[in-house]
Amino acid sequence: MLMLLLQLRQIALVAAIAAFVVLTNLGGPRLWDRDEPRNAGCAREMLARNDWVVPTFDGELRTHKPVLLYWCIMVSYLGFGVNEFAARLASALCAIGSVICTYRIGRRLFGPQAGVWAAIALATSLMFVVAGRAATPDSLLIFCTTLSLMIYVCGTFRPRFDTTPFDAQPHPIVADRYFPQHFPTVLALYAAMGLGILAKGPVALILPTAVIGMFLLIVRLPSRSQAIDSASLGDRLVRIIGPFEPLHFLKTCWSMRPLTAIFAAAAVALPWYWAVGLATNGEFLRGFFLEHNLSRATATMENHSGTVFFYPLAILIGFFPWSVFAVPLAIDTVLQLRRRDRFHAGYLLAVCWIGVYVVLFSLARTKLPSYVTPCYPALALLAGDYIDRWSRQSAAVAGRWLVAAFACLALAGIGIAAAVPLAVKDILPGEEWLGLIGLVPIAGGIVCIAFALIRSYRAAAGSFAFAAITFAALLFAVAVDRIDRHQTNHVLWQAIYARSRSPQVAAYRILEPSWVFYGNREVREITAAPPSSPQLAAEQAVHFLSHSTEAYLITTRQKLTELSPLLPSDVQVVAQSPYFLKRNQELVVLTRHPEPIATLPHPVHLY
Q1: Please, which residues bridge with residue 98 across strands?
Q2: Contact between residue 558 and residue 465 where contact means Cβ atoms under 8 Å apart
């Protein structure tokens, strides 16, 4: 009973920290990026049609992502109305769920305190918070992945008790069986992956299965206890390829119950894919699986490319501030894996988790930092265990390594304080003071160094966590909100609606999805992309303006010069606004309506 109460207290603690970071001012900033308004707008269009099957945005079929995020946003709209908070709520709740799942995995594999540290590290890492505060499917995928691996861990390894030594290795429930033996557990494991398929597609089944499979391929080798460093070169090569020996590989795959995997995942995901395929005559399935899955793996899309160093660098930034421990953590993990006196499955599973995601996505041609965020819980598990051990003064890699890590935190803060004013001077005038947020990691690094020098490691760990929580909250709840105040495209829509109740709107050679969402109407895109041409696009824009006084065209001041020689004499610029986060660019609205506009200094929501 006491152990249960302790678990509940720890779960409440990590959930409260995660909720503070991801829910504070969640609905304050307007929808950013290109994906947030697309997803939020798609859910609104589906809700307006009462259509829970076919996703559309701006009146066109949206084949980019499956339906789970849209369902969640639609339900949220029903409860909270159509607004930014409702659009982002599902991502925030899934982030909190991922933190709790990470705690449960950490507690089972490494111990209660390690689980708490792992959860705090995950809840305050930059890219994870970005996912948890955005109306995108990334947070849902992270949750489904972490949930499935939590089910796997809890169904495979014995619970830890208060009397269990904190550094004891986890033991399987059934001796030498590193896969759940209880059928309902296996069913739940693959059903969670099936839910992930509804969130972001087949990667939600393939990659978590590959993580577990890689772990089993290694752990089931009969000779894994032999020391690699004592083997000859030939023995090392055999050991490297040993997990993939055909018979061993096939036996391991069969032990994972592939038929159950197919049945459980299909039972969850297949009904919607079948329904949307029928409703769109297969168009959604072709667009989603061939273009947005196969093509992204085999070709570079939207200029998102990178070298083999892309994801290691992305993780160093995305897992900040905890990535300052990257070097000592990597050394410590290698030492733990090479120990001859024991085998610790927790380290191996975490390394497999990270390795599968980084290696496979490094092989893919299209690269984005968000692709590897589902392995952030594994990074947090290793970091949580490492922090727990050095705070107890039992880590082999500590001392000067910790001082160097804390110094890196302070140096990162100095970089933020110096770089932010320079970066925002032209595109966000008046917000140079945001560089002061860098004082948090500066102060945190200095305080941690002071505690480390007097060997008060628990105080150093607590100070680091406090700095991480404060930095994340200030960055996402305060700084992002201040930056958002410079989004002024609402001026364009207010000018349009001041002149017409049912305007026909088009965008010439540029279209931001936020215009569609906040305008609450379709915006036709006139583009110069093949098979069109700049001249043809310009002629189409002029024809669009000429056919009605209810027609409005949005473009930039620079592109207006392309149209000016072709425009009728009665076409005028009726509104202008700075282009958000674009240096020295301005948006304009063209129409044949002659009335001038009034200045509208304060943003309003038009949906």
Answers
A1: none
A2: no
Beta bridge partners of residue 177, listed in sequence order: 174
DSSP state of 301: -
pLDDT band for 9, please (50, 70, 90 cuts). very high
Is the distance from CB of 368 to CB of 435 less than 8 angstroms?
no
Residue of 90, 68, 69 whose CA lies nearest to 79: 90
User: What one-character DSSP code corresponds to residue 195?
Assistant: H
Spell 127-138 as b/e; 16+ CB within 10 A means b. bbbbbbbbbbbb
Per-residue DSSP letter, 607 = -
Report the length, in residues, of the chain.
607
Give residue 228's pLDDT.
43
pLDDT given for residue 232 in this prediction = 54
Taking the model in full, what pTM does it have? 0.93
In three-state secondary structure terms, 114 is: helix
Write out the two tokens for 502: 């049912």
340 or 570: which leads in pLDDT: 570
Rg (CA), the chain: 27
Bridge pairing between strands 60-61 and 572-578: unpaired
DSSP class of residue 162 equals T
- State the chain's mean pLDDT as an integer: 90
Which tokens go with 383? 């970091």
Q: What is the token pair recorded at 299?
A: 């070709």
Cα angle 314, 315, 321; round to 5: 115
> Alpha carbon of 126 to those of 96, 321, 373, 484, 561: distances in Å?
15, 8, 10, 18, 41
Range with the lowest mean pLDDT among 78-82, 101-105, 304-308, 551-555? 304-308
Q: What tokens appear for 353 in the block?
A: 């988790």
* Largest interatomic CA distance in the chain: 86
- Listed in order, strand segments (DSSP E) in 372-509 are 504-508
